[in-house]
TrEMBL record:
Alphabetic keyword roster: Glycosidase, Hydrolase
Family from the record: Belongs to the glycosyl hydrolase 2 family.
Name of the protein in its database record: Mannosylglycoprotein endo-beta-mannosidase
Organism: Rhododendron griersonianum
Keyword Hydrolase (UniProt): yes
GO biological process: carbohydrate metabolic process
Amino acid sequence: MGEMGKRKLDTGWFAARSTEVKLTGVELTTTHPPSSPDQPWMEAVVPGTVLATLVKNNLVPDPFYGLENESIIDIADSGREYYTFWFFTTFHCKLSGNQHVDLNFRAINYSAEVYLNGHKEVLPKGMFRRHSLDVTDIVHPDGENLLAVLVYPPDHPGRIPPEGGQGGDHEFVRNLLFLISMHYSSVQPMKIVDPHLVSSFFDNYKRVYLHATTGLVNKSARVAECSLNVQVTTEVKGGFCLVEHLRTEHVSVPPGASVQYTLPELFFYKPHLWWPNGMGKQSLYNVEIGVEVKGFGESDMWNHHFGFRKIESEIDSVTGGRLFKVNGQPVFIRGGNWILSDGLLRLSKKRYQTDIKFHSDMNFNMIRCWGGGLAERPEFYHYCDIYGLLVWQEFWITGDCDGRGIPISNPDGPLDHELFLLCARDTVKLLRNHPSLALWVGGNEQVPPEDINTALKDELKLHPYFQISTQSGNSQEDIFPLLDDPSQYLDGTRIYIQGSMWDGFADGKGDFSDGPYEIQYPESFFKDDFYKYGFNPEVGSVGMPVAATIRATMPPEGLQIPLFKKLSNGYVEEVPNPMWEYHKYIAYSKPGLVHDQILLYGTPTDLDDFCLKAQLVNYVQYRALLEGWTSRMWSKYTGVLIWKNQNPWTGLRGQFYDHLHDQTAGFYGCRSAAEPIHVQLNLATYFVEVVNTTSDELSNVAIEVSVWDLEGKCPYYKVFENLSVPSKRTVPIFEMDYPKSKNQTPVYFLLLKLYNISDYGILSRNFYWFYLPGGDYKLLEPYRKKKVPLKITSQVFIRGSAYEIRMHVRNTSKKPDSENLLYKNRFIERDSDGDFDVASLEAVNSRIEEKKEGGLIRRIFSRFQHEANALRVAEVNGTEVGVAFFLHFSVHASKPDHKEGEDTRILPVHYSDNYFSLAPGEEMPINLSFEVPPGVTPRVTLHGWNYHTGHTIL
């Protein structure tokens, strides 16, 4: 008997430009198949764009490097034939006489001809849709199958107007012609298609029902007598699985028919709920639907992780902003905008995992999939489920595609409305079972044409149950006999909003009231007049990466730092070099409004100095942005999304990590500010505030306040005890009277600690640096020469190529004062946090590719089958007392044949914290986790404001 299941076809592809191939598709898949990457054939990148394949084979320069993108001919100039490509591969499949084989395509841009063993099929147009071809009568069940796909670009690729279109970094979006990975699946006569899972809640989430409707397709010429089996499992400790439900239904499907079958609901009492990041655990159940056909046995099986949760959304009566609730609890949204993982669509699970975990590490709880991008692959949403990131999913209506460039091309775009709706419905079916998916949005800063908008509103309307309070006493028996089963809707569980600035977002009327997108004074974010609407879907600022990234992505002429041009009004204008300007650099000054924030630290001397000072500003800028919004939680704001979290290319604006996956200091400013429990200083009122976004009241807590000068002295110290902070509130606690008090110092550090009185466990720690009004940070320049000693103890845990390093970093310049300062507070880890070993989530002995993807439920990362190295101690010598300022670690490959200028960084690395500072005598735990290439020994290096030469720690 053949094997039932799926096999991905994302390796072993060749590609060639169609005009250079003199053979037909029939010949390629019968008598003259390419056997090696010889001219004109080359190794192909699948998934990926045609441009990705050309870059891989060095046929065009890397468009992410310097100005090389300008040397690549655009499709508007070359014509469609130049970027029409053949893709070719082979595969084997073993089938029994009763099995059927489907060839499945995730998405192709924009249309294709498919040839398999000499047989031709034409795929319909449209980049946002799946295709499935029944090739049962074509495949060679016991031999090699030859597959060739001729991929055509869009019929109307268009041209970017000289003045650009609507949106951000449009210039890099050229030649987006891609073949997304495909797979073949083999089943018996019955096929399962697009099941829909919905949960309904009663009695304050104690009683839960799981609803399921699935498509069934009978591929045979006989009536299929089926047993439809549903199994719901969860993982318990030790990796064991608990079967929560097991049910079988008998279904009869006519020959050749396609039916929708709704299963009886399954009842759960007090299930584990799925929560957004920072609100609780992301509990997931594994739902498996299988079908057996009488006379044939098991025919097909479908598997998906499912989270019990209810998402509600309304316009808040106090702020006018859109208010989200999950499982009845209001969620203060702090997140950002997502463009693409990679501009050449070289998409992978590993990259998705890193991307989404970075967002979780920043304590974000929402990602907006911006409408100028695409509907991501299911793996993206899978990791959002795993890490608790709510997803705002936007459809691809935006002026970047059609309509609002200069000049306006077609305000009624897209050209084919029916095709758009077909692709939209298919996208909904693909993504609707993910608990992270929070809402659908029609377009970015615009709404779809009237007919499309009307259709989306109708087809994505809420099921009546989701307009009924979960707290009501109505029973399931009272409600559902009167309604269609909720799983019979296209979605029905989450709202549809027509555009990103409508209905509770920005001014709610679409009047371009998002933004701004430039550098701000940190205190501006706290002021009444900064942003007057309740939910800002886009507010942006700077995003300069570290110097090593600039060197890795630009030639020598791109390493020149900006010129600082003094203007007559006293402001400074930054003049970047042409490469930085091309890569969308945002200046750290705004002449007439904001003085240059880098020059506050002194004029940069070179690239390293400039980028280090930029990181100081990045940290301050983004911490202030989120703290300013959180300071007005529920009183003025319901949420904010930053433009943008990352760049899908080597951009120099609005990002928390670069395309190479190295974080900026803004990453850690956000991580601090978006803590579920957070202590902060309101920069407008100078009140110390405590933020509690959790569902529990804080009680019996205290705040320690200490001020440190550049001599290592503490001129100000206070403790405020016996504090209580209600749930979901930001509470001002006391007004800082320093530097109004005596003994002022021109530049000083402020350390805030919120801790439990019972055990001195730190709930939140926040470190600021300030100058007196009218001053600047230039006194920090000579402070760089201050030699402050450090002691770092570390332990390394290794499993294969994965490393985890646990360190304690201590400023040893002063002994702790046990009677006063709380140096040895115990840092508390949130229960819902864990650095999960997602590698253990991958499929094992799976019969289909998605089965047990992620292995039921996450396992804790620290559960290594590891070897533990002995405790190591590293000391950085120094004789002076003071703050160890702006410390940051990096991981490098130890290479004996290291070449000068070579980028030796190992990326990505997940840090529990970075770009941190330590007061005299203070100690902090820092954890790192990363993977190393085969045969590479990692080296951990410490840098800092006082440690600019770098110190090897491991």
